[in-house]
């Protein structure tokens, strides 16, 4: 999966194209209000003065409220249809990835590669984690895009806002290999050009100037087993043969109901679609929580790709999805096992450095205008702070190998 630009992890808009919304992680990048505070303030003052002249301190008349509500609802439906394609019931339908990786390609592991990601995107986040714990940082350099004012993925240096964190934490950057201003320009460099959705993650062939893959699961499978000759931790196998069946079984439950399930809640365009999505989300989380009461990871004692895919949604759950996407039945902190399980993975060396929480929050609250018109970012929940996530999780006692599990440093 991938993240999109608004509207579309992880295609040009129909006319009129003047305002575009870019997004999916499998992102979701940004629909934003004008950031010119003076202009916005002046506009508000004019409207406020007119309203005082018309009806003084009283509320506006019912007809005006009804008219504004109708106009806003119609506008919201138009914006949501571009941001999040839906089925006839109003349920969100994620577009498929355009460029898939062929594992039979004999040159894939010898190609000079570059990875493009966006930090808000959970689909791109998968690739960063596997790249890190496999020790592929030198073999596969990365450029980190950030949502621009028009919703496209842009390249720019943004200072880290969280000074209490590890100095190695990832932050938005310039395009380190092609020098492009935005991700769409990178896609257009490929032979024949490209006018489709400019999504992250994007694995790029540096020499051929070609897209290798923009499907997140293909990329993490490739990073796990296709580059062991270049990895600093080639012995770590996140998809061992004996566990592939269990991994696929968990993925079949987690992807539609949790990974994509939170988006189906947030992007639902009818009450019926939301109810279906939210019930599927929390019934699946309850099932996983029960399972983790007797198992350190999803497939037993070993960390697998299924855990990585679940983690990137869980780490955003209380931070973003619980509030912005209306996943409000429970916070992750209220589950018996899920929060400790998430902390267990977060504390694996190098994983925390891939989690830039202020940038993640900005990428949702200040980007998804139809869901948050004021672009106000709420305060970070205590349970999502680095200090809290670094508390002991005590889950090593559930593993027969305990702390003997080794990860690359």
From TrEMBL:
InterPro entries registered for this protein in UniProt: Glutathione-S-Trfase_C-like, Glutathione-S-Trfase_C_sf, Glutathione_S-Trfase, Glutathione_S-Trfase_N, GST_Omega-like_C, GST_Omega/GSH, Thioredoxin-like_sf
GO molecular function: glutathione transferase activity
PROSITE patterns: GST_CTER (PS50405)
Alphabetized Pfam families for the sequence: GST_C_2, GST_N_2
SUPFAM superfamilies: GST C-terminal domain-like (SSF47616), Thioredoxin-like (SSF52833)
Domain GST C-terminal as annotated: residue spans: 213-382
PANTHER family xref list: GLUTATHIONYL-HYDROQUINONE REDUCTASE, OS02G0814800 PROTEIN
Name of the protein: Glutathionyl-hydroquinone reductase YqjG
Native species: Theobroma cacao
